[in-house]
Amino acid sequence: MSKKGIWITVAGVAGVALALSAALPALRDVAGLGETATGPLHEVHREAFSRTVHAEGNLSAAQATQLGPPPGGHGPLKIAWLADDGSRVAEGSVVIRFDPTEMEKDLDEGQSEQATTDSRISQKQVREDSAIRNLERDAGMADMELDYARKFQAKDPEIYSRADLIESEIDQNLATERKDHATEVREIRGELAEVEMELLAIERRKAELKVKQATEDLERLEVRAPHDGIFVLKEFWGRVAEVGSMVWGGNTVAEIPQLDVMEVECFVLEADAGGLEVGLPARVTLEAHPGNVYEGKIKKIDALAKPRFRGVPVQYFTVMLELEQTDVERMKPGQRVQAILNLGDRDAVVTVPRQAVFDREGQTVVYARRNGDFEPLEVELGPAALGRVVVENGLDEGELIALYDPTRPRQTFGEDSDNGTSGPGGGAGP
User: Fold this and answer.
1) Is 391:379 a contact under the CB 8 Å cutoff?
2) CA 227-232-233 angle, 5° bins
3) CA distance linking residue 71 with residue 408, whole number of Å
4) pLDDT tens for residues 243-300?
5) What confidence tens digit (pLDDT) does each residue in 187-229 have?
6) Any domain includes 132
């Protein structure tokens, strides 16, 4: 480049700089700012204030049929087959099939126990019948002996000797005792046999129940769709089920949502959650159809903030939104949405830029321009929104306040500085 060209370029740059310097006051006037020799000012006035919070989330069905393993105490089940995630299913079609190995094993064991118990019952019945017959025979023999002893008892002392009389009496007593013993043993043996048969009957009922439970479980290992809809896999323990996964009774593997009523599950940063209340209005847009806006309201707010992503410490409150209407043609479960939650509108309130608020010895203050100097005014803050905060008390309309800390050395206006970063307005969350 020639020297002449270089001088023309330098002159052009200098001219642009002078033009920008001349335009800065006009730009500040347009922005509603004044400026002193030390920095910019802001004139306080009343205005409408709206606090909104942005959130993102997904559509979900307000009502859905939960699908999972059959209830019971048989332990975890292995998934053998799954319908495709997001596929349309018809009522009665199989959507989940579990591995039947454990159920078949339980069925075989139950049937084996049932057969063993039946055999034991049969053998016990035969033995007890034989024992009872023997005892009845012994009792009959004892009764015959008693009759014989009574019939031929030696009673006449003139005919029989004393020894014969004593022996005859002893024989009669022994016959009586044998009969009583045989009768008593028969009764005891019958009671014991009855108890043992009842115990065997209990074991048989347990085996029958095991067979019945295993049979029912085998029948329920095929989970069928209770109604038409879309098959949606659900996360449990931080993952989505797949073929080979082990699941317990109570785990939700998938669901079939009812598509006529949709709701929104969205996530609000913990720092932005102050003022969230059930019933506050919201506006929702679908990322796939950003031109359509749907009205709704807050339906539910989680009591505790939780991390949204594993390994990321940022915490969110889960907020459920109820929609005024469901667009069945456009809305599908799982679609991403953007939501704007309105936490309250106020008319004619005093607001200031957040960078005009500072912390001074534990007090929240703004610096008002009075008589050529700055006076710290303690203020009571209200709700905040992006870039602005409501002042409830301590500041009047028409005041000129500094947008910097006049108690600190300050760089030339337009250069980088740390103004406002030490106070409530210096970048804190709402």
Assistant:
1) yes
2) 130
3) 70
4) 999 988 888 899 998 888 999 999 999 988 888 999 999 999 999 999 999 999 999 9
5) 787 788 788 888 888 988 998 988 888 888 788 888 999 988 8
6) yes
DSSP codes, 54-105: EEEEEEEESSEEEE-SPPSSS--EEEEEEPPTT-EE-TT-EEEEE--HHHHH
Within this chain, do residues 90 and 235 fall inside the same structural domain, yes or no?
yes
Tallying the residues shown for the chain, one arrives at 430
**Count of C-beta atoms within a 10 Å radius of residue 187:** 11
Of 194, 220, 246, which residue constitutes the final position of a domain?
A: 220
Nearest to 266 by CA among 292, 279, 285, 250: 285
CA dihedral 391, 397, 398, 404 (to 10 degrees): 0
Burial class (CB in 10 A: 0-12, 13-18, 19+), 400: middle
Q: Which helix (H) or strand (E) holds 26?
A: helix 3-30
In this structure, the answer to whether residues 89 and 111 fall within a common structural domain is: no
Q: 282: closest CA among 339, 346, 320, 336?
A: 339
- Has residue 196 been placed in a domain? yes
Domain shared by 230 and 215, yes or no: no
> Of 325, 324, 306, whose CA–CA distance to 316 is shortest?
306
In eight-state DSSP terms, residue 185 is H
Residues 125 and 235 reside in one and the same domain: no
Cα dihedral: 137, 138, 140, 142 (round 10): 170
Q: Are residues 211 and 184 in the same domain?
A: yes
User: Are 146 and 232 within one domain?
Assistant: no
Residue 133's domain comprises 101-220
What is the total count of domains within the chain? 2
